[in-house]
Automatic annotation (TrEMBL):
UniProt signal peptide: none
Limits of the RNA polymerase sigma factor 70 region 4 type domain: 131-183
Region (Disordered): 101-123
Residue span, RNA polymerase sigma-70 region domain: 32-98
NCBIfam families: PRK09643.1, sigma70-ECF
UniProt-listed InterPro entries: RNA_pol_sigma-70-like, RNA_pol_sigma-70_dom, RNA_pol_sigma70_r2, RNA_pol_sigma70_r4_t2, RNA_pol_sigma_r2, RNA_pol_sigma_r3/r4-like, WH-like_DNA-bd_sf
GO molecular function terms attached to this record: DNA binding; sigma factor activity
Keywords (A to Z) from UniProt: DNA-binding, Sigma factor, Transcription, Transcription regulation
Pfam families, per database record: Sigma70_r2, Sigma70_r4_2
A biological process from GO: DNA-templated transcription initiation
Basic and acidic residues composition-biased segments: 104-113
Originating organism: Naumannella halotolerans
Protein name: RNA polymerase sigma-70 factor (ECF subfamily)
UniProt keyword Manganese present: no
Amino acid sequence: MSERTLIGADERTDDELLAAHVAGDPNAFGLLFARHRNRMWAIALKTMRDPEEAADALQEAMIAAFRRAGSFRGESKVTTWLHRVVVNACLDRIRRNKVRKAHPLPEDPDRMSELAGSTRTDEVERHDLRQALNAALGQLNTDQRSALLLIDVEGYSVEEAATILGCAPGTVKSRCARGRARLARLLVHLREDE
């Protein structure tokens, strides 16, 4: 997606929209947010691992970005700055909520097992693999999980991830290496099943 992604009839770049917002254009920030909301949501959801927490973190991030737009120095792309604001809001929420929330069980366990029995084997295996991977990711510390998600899931370069996370590229590489090593240990049972 280029800097000139169209939203309706507005062809302004992200930089132009942010500058227009700072200059007082009441619609510019809304257009900027609409342009990038899906990716911001994906980052918040993958970082928080809970839709309600992710929604709250994303809202806090967008309020912070709205208020602090004037402090954007232009040293990176606007999207990189927005991603960093989202990641920081997520990390702040995680720090505030040190106690992990319990995830509710399905309301009707009989119905869930009935549905599971009616699916194809490969779908069940993919679901089990996804659950195992999510559980393993949940056991990583926040720094490792954030680095892995940005590099391996979102496809950012090490330098872009370093900018978003506010650390050195070497730190991102180290977090990814440690996170991958821990994931390999946590998921070794999947290789043994093959």
